[in-house]
Design brief:
Elements (H helix, E strand, L loop, with lengths): L3 H5 L8 H24 L7 E7 L2 E22 L5 E6 L6 E2 L4 E5 L2 H33 L7 H34 L1 E3 L4 E3 L9 E2 L8 E16 H13 L2 E12 L10 E5 L10 E8 L11 E17 L3 E3 L5 E7 L2 E6 L1 E5 L3 E6 L6 E5 L10 E5 L1 E2 L5 E2 L5 H6 L12 H5 L1
Parallel strand pairs: 1-20
Antiparallel strand pairs: 1-19, 2-9, 2-13, 3-5, 3-8, 4-7, 5-6, 7-9, 9-12, 10-11, 10-13, 11-12, 13-18, 14-15, 15-16, 15-19, 17-18, 21-22
Helix pairs in contact: 3-4
Length: about 425
């Protein structure tokens, strides 16, 4: 006896022969279509086109880029030369002051009295000289009649002592007048004055350690540039070998911290003669005009020093790459195939590497189409050039490569929606 569930289920129908025939026919058509598409696929792609530039040995300015730091050409700490109470501050902080400009005034009552006393002592000494001179003249005239030779010599000694007293009094007066003048503290150089560290009413002492203010000269400004000693030796070797013709005068340019090129050229002040034991670099100082006070002491800068002329090949920086070890490489086309070369560079010039090794005169250096290159890959070199901005120009149109590529054909037959549904 059948259960209620079994009786509720519809009967299972077996596929008839027509349905099996349609399924077999559709599967065969799909296999034939896939075989046709595979047969029509291209056997291989043509060689890739790359933009190349011919390497040429030429005279290139040897410019090295060095880190630098600005330092003041002159800077002085203002300290009192006499002791006393500060009575006036005579300058405005942050403003330019010329050499000799009064900055502070110290109470001068004591020093005026000392100067007056010294002047009185000088007058007294001068009077004694007059008296001694008269006594000596009278004694000398009466030798043999009213005075002896011993008295003449004694009068001469008294006159010499009076003259010495005059000299001593004159020296004391000069010192007293100088101390009186030092009660007005002036700037010894022209520059920018800092905020005063002393206030009115403060007691300052002669030769104290704390400065009352600072005056810094900003124009001109000097920049210390640091060159590794290894590069210095390399430059010396190039000069000895004759590959570098050193300029008679070394000039430098600056790049500020914001990337702006400073409009001014610096001249060499003093070459470095010692190597730092901590950094292994040589400190060379250059001087720059700084009329707008744009460069301040302590700023970190990047300097470019023009050493001279060298024989080298210029390779665009966009055509090179560096590996994890810092090795600089570029691609060169040789007999229709690309080969990667390790380059030896000696600085940069106008966004190009100054290359002295790795490529030779006449080599075709790949500068465009670098993506996907591999060692020994076949390529089609296309001569290109660079414009003033370093952008590749005059490359052959890409349509030339497109025309040579075979295009995939549309399959002759494709299953229709109705067939797919069936």
């Amino acid at each position: 006896m059948q259960s209620a569930v079994a009786m509720a289920m519809p009967p299972i129908r077996k596929p008839d022969e027509m349905t099996m025939y349609k399924f077999t026919l559709f599967a065969g058509a799909a296999v034939l279509l896939a075989s046709s598409v595979v047969a029509q696929a291209p056997a291989g792609m043509p060689p890739k086109q790359v933009g190349v530039v011919e390497a040429q040995v030429q005279d290139v300015p040897r410019i090295v880029t060095l880190p630098g730091r600005a330092v003041a050409a002159s800077s002085t700490a203002i300290r009192p030369r006499v002791s006393g109470i500060v009575t006036e501050i005579l300058y405005e902080p942050g403003r330019f002051i010329a050499a000799g400009t009064p900055m502070f005034r110290i109470d001068d009552t004591t020093y005026e009295a000392n100067a007056a006393a010294a002047a009185a002592q000088l007058s007294s000494a001068q009077a004694q000289v007059t008296e001694a001179q008269a006594a000596y003249t009278r004694t000398e005239r009466l030798v043999g009649s009213g005075s002896t030779q011993a008295q003449v010599e004694s009068a001469r000694a008294t006159l010499d002592q009076a003259r010495a007293a005059v000299d001593s009094a004159q020296a004391n007066l000069t010192l007293a007048q100088a101390q009186l003048g030092w009660t007005t503290v002036t700037s010894p150089l022209s520059g920018i004055a800092s905020v005063s560290a002393a206030s009115i009413g403060d007691l300052v002492t002669e030769g104290q350690a704390d400065a009352m203010a600072t005056v810094t000269q900003l124009d001109p400004i000097e920049v210390d540039m640091y060159e590794p000693s290894s590069r210095f030796l390399s430059v010396m070797d190039d000069i000895t070998d004759g590959t570098l013709r050193l300029n008679e005068e070394l000039n430098a340019t600056l790049t500020l911290e914001n990337g702006r090129v400073y409009q001014g050229q610096g001249s060499l002040v003093a070459p470095g003669v010692t190597v730092s034991t901590t950094t292994g670099s040589i400190d060379t100082r250059f001087r720059f005009d700084n009329p707008d006070n744009m460069i301040l002491p302590g700023m970190f800068l990047r300097g470019q020093v023009d050493l001279g002329i060298t024989q080298a090949i210029l390779v665009s920086q966009s055509a090179t790459s560096r590996d994890k070890l810092g090795k600089l490489t570029a691609w060169v086309v040789v007999d229709g195939k690309v080969s990667q070369r390790a380059l030896t560079e000696e600085g940069t010039y106008e966004h190009q590497w100054i290359v002295t090794g790795g490529v030779e005169d006449g080599d075709m250096v790949v500068v465009d189409g670098l993506a996907g290159l591999s060692e020994g890959a076949e390529v089609v070199p296309v001569p290109v050039s660079f414009d003033d901005n370093g952008v590749v120009r005059d490359r052959a149109p890409a349509q030339a490569q497109t025309d040579t590529e075979p295009q995939a054909e549309t399959p002759a037959t494709a299953p229709s929606d109705a067939s797919a549904t069936e």
